[in-house]
Amino acid sequence: MINMKRILVTGATGQIGSELTPALRKRYGDENVIASGHTIEPDRELLEGGPFCFLDVRDSCSLEKIVKEYRINTIYHLAALLSAAAEKDSQLAWDVNINGLKTILEAARAFHCSVFFPSSIGAFGPSTPPDNTPQDTIQRPATMYGITKLSGELLCDYYYHRFGVDTRGLRFPGLISYKTMPHGGTTDYAVEIFYAAIRGNRYECFLREGTRLDMMYMPDAIRAAINLMEADPKRLAHRNAFNVTAMSFAPEEIYTEIKKNIPDFIMTYRVDPVRQAIADSWPHHMDDSSARREWGWRHEYNLAAMTREMIERLSERFEKDKGDRYVSKTVR
Ligand code: SER
């Protein structure tokens, strides 16, 4: 088959990767999607769903070996540290987020691969207009995460213009999913809150009331990544770093929405100054009209629809986990 996609996903065990990988396998065939990560024990769905390779994205020899062996022509490069984790270890964040990307781009140049790179609302900073943040605007991020994401956007542009590598990317907002917890992000509260609500616990929110940020439900994020990579390149004026969003809310608004479904749920605030400062430097709401115009981006989930589905799916999981625990106890 001509143009058959042979895909490598880096960071496949992470927040986006653990859902993008199965979606890509469903679309392009299990054997055509190679998952990779630096976890020794990835979850069963990932391991049994198709090939899995151990990979540190900074290791160019191992990367090239995988690209050659599996005849890779498309790389979804997701391996990265999130914002709060990057503030804790800025050296490691630079190394993984920048040197990792550079290694991927070099392999893509040598082996003629397309590259998907997720940027973020973190690529903006305190001097960026926070409302209706334009596609092309001031970007002076104040965090190590933001600096690596902005540098990544520029590197991807550079590899396209200078070497003709087919790089494409999105600026994701906070992503919400019932499958995998994010680790070390500033928008993590919008996922943690559901786990607390389903388990009947109180939730202590680490961001202040009124902290409005862009967000998106994971199925929309997965569709956005796949659609952008399949888009007609002639229509792409921007290729990299497209603003994309689906909803924008502050902690009290998601709390109210959850309470409509779980009236007893209680949320209180205990502000984490590090993550609050990060959130305060990010936009409230991005203008994503370029993505909508250039490749037909459309979100499907708003706050109410996402909340309903998160509660439904997490409740099912919670019940199943309880059942599994009961079975394993009685078997023993
Ligand atoms: N969700 C990410 C974070 O909070 C933002 O891209 O770090």
CATH class identity of the largest domain: Alpha Beta
The CATH topology of the largest domain: Rossmann fold
Strand order of the largest sheet: 3-2-1-4-5-7-11
Low-confidence stretches: none
Percent range for β-strand residues: 15-25%
- How many structural domains in the coordinates? 2
What are the secondary-structure elements, in order, as H or E? Answer: EHEHEHEHHEEHEEHEEHEEHEHEHH
Cα shape: globular
- Helical run tally: 12
Task: Give a structural overview.
The protein is of the alpha/beta class and 332 residues long. It folds into 2 domains: 194 residues, NAD(P)-binding Rossmann-like Domain (Rossmann fold); 91 residues, no CATH class. The protein contains 12 helices and 14 strands. Strands 3-2-1-4-5-7-11 form a 7-stranded parallel sheet, with helices on both faces. The protein has a 3-stranded mixed sheet with strand order 8-10-12. Strand 1, helix 1 and strand 2 form a beta-alpha-beta unit. Helix 3 runs parallel beside helix 5, helix 5 packs parallel to helix 6 and helix 9 crosses helix 12. The radius of gyration is 20 Å and the shape is globular. It binds serine. The site of serine has 11 residues, from loops.
